[in-house]
Amino acid sequence: MRPSSAQLRMAISGASFTFRWVADVIKDGERVLQDLPCTAPSFTDDDSQQVQSTGSLSFVYQDDFARSIAPSGVADVLSPFGTQVWAYVLVEDGPALSERVLMGQYLVDSTPSINSTRMLFNGAAVTVGETIDVTLSDLFYGVQVDRFYTPGSPSSLTSAWTEVQRLTGLPVTRPSDVPDAPIPKSVAYQEDRLQAVYDLATYSVDAVPFVTPDGTVSMRPNTWPGPVDTLSDGDGGNLIRVDRGMSPDDVYNAIAVRAYDTTDGSAVLASGQITDGPLRAAEPDGALSPFRRRPKFYQSQYITNRLQAKAYVDRWLPRVAQLTGVEHDLTETFNPLRQIGDVITVQELGVAPYVGRVTRIQRSDATTQQTTVKVGPQ
Questions:
Q1: Nearest residue to 7 (alpha-carbon basis) of 318, 337, 343
Q2: How far apart are CA 143 and CA 55, in angstroms?
Q3: What distance in Å separates the CA atoms of residue 82 and residue 243, rounded to the nearest whole number?
Q4: Between vectors from CA 228 to CA 172 and to CA 179, what angle results, nearest 5°?
Q5: For the packed helices 193-205 and 160-168, what is the interaxial angle rounded to 10 degrees?
Q6: Are 214 and 169 in contact, with CB atoms under 8 Å apart?
C-alpha cells in the first residue's frame, strides 16, 4: 500500500470522497509545469511486464498569456526525450480533507496526438487552447532502452543492492523483508540492462525489482508477506464485483534447471516434480497423470554447480506447483493506495475468506478500479 495519512485511509474506506488527476511536468530536473489538470487518464500496473507501470492521459491547456506548451522539437516541454510526468490523485472529502497521492513518476515515451487551436489577435496568430495526448512508462523504461555497448559484469560481488543501483542509475529503497546479499558469481551481462537487473534480483535476493511511486528502485519478495488490507462486499464494503477465472498457464508440476559448471564446462542439471495431489506429474505406476507433466525450465549464469541447481529446484517447485492458477478480477471502489504485490484478505458474502496477491491494477477517472489478484492456496 502507498503511504498515507489515517484520515485519507478512512475517507477511502468510506467511499464518499471525490478525486481528480493532476500532473507535474519535469524537464531537465526542473518542475516546469505544476498541477496540470488531466483528462482521459488510463493507467495499468502489471507485474507480468518488466516495465510494470504504464499509462496515458491528455492535457487540455489554456495559457493566460496565449503561450503554447505543445512540443515541436526535441528540447520542448512534453517532448518524449527525457521529459517526466509525475501523476497525482488529489483526494478530497469535504472541507476536512485534501490530500495528494503520488501515483508514479513516468517518462513520456510518445506524444501521439497534438492539437493546437489558434486565432488572429491584432494581426498575429495566438494559441487559445491545446490538447496534448501523452503515453507514459515508469522509469524502468529508461533502463530498458539503455542497453550495454559490450557485455559487462558486476563491479563488485559484495552487495546485490549496490549493483542494482549501479545498473539502474536510480536511488534505491531497501525494504526490511528483502535484505542485502552477495552476488553468487561474476556473470557477463548481455545487451539488455533491465533483464540483468531482474536476473540479479531473482538469483541474489529472491525478489522482484520495481519502481516505487517516488521514482526509486525497490524490491518485493517472491514469498508472500502478510495481508495489508481487507476488502469486503455488502454494507459498508468496497468490493463491488468478483469475476473468477482459472488457467494452468502459470502452474507447473516439475522444474528443470540447466546450467554449466564454470570450472570444467560440464553440464549441470537438477530437476524435481510433484508426486502426489491433483498436480502430480505421474501416477505411482509411472503412467502420466491427467494433468500430465508440465515442466518449467530455468537457465542462468548464476547457477554453476549441482548443489546450487538443486537448491533452486527445492525453493521454486513448491511455489510454481501451488494451486495459484486461480485469479479473481475484483471491481472495487477507487483506491489510489493499492499497489502491485499487496496481499489482501477478500471477504465475500457466503464465501470463506481468502487471501490474494495483487498482480494487476487498471485505473482511470472512474469511481471504480479493476484489481486482479492471484489467489493463494486454500
A1: 337
A2: 18
A3: 39
A4: 35
A5: 170
A6: no
Provide the CB-side half-sphere exposure for 296 (13 A, CA): 16
Query: Phi and psi dihedrals of 140, rounded to 5?
Result: -65, -20
* Listed residue (368, 366, 370, 339) closest to 20, CA to CA: 366
Read off the C-alpha cell for 68: 503554447
The C-alpha cell at 161 is 543492492
- Cell digits for 164? 542494482
- Using the structure block, give the residue that is written with the C-alpha cell 564446462: 265
Residue 343 makes CB contacts below 8 A (sequence gap 6+) with: 224, 225, 226, 227, 228, 355, 356, 357, 358, 376
Give the pLDDT band (50/70/90) at residue 234.
confident
pLDDT of 198 above 90: yes
Residue 170, H or E segment:
none
- The 8-class DSSP code of residue 95 comes to B
Q: Are 285 and 274 in contact (CB under 8 A)?
A: no
pTM of the full predicted structure?
0.90
Which helix (H) or strand (E) covers residue 9, if one does? helix 6-14
Quote the cell numbers at residue 242: 468478483
Element (H, E) at 327: strand 326-333
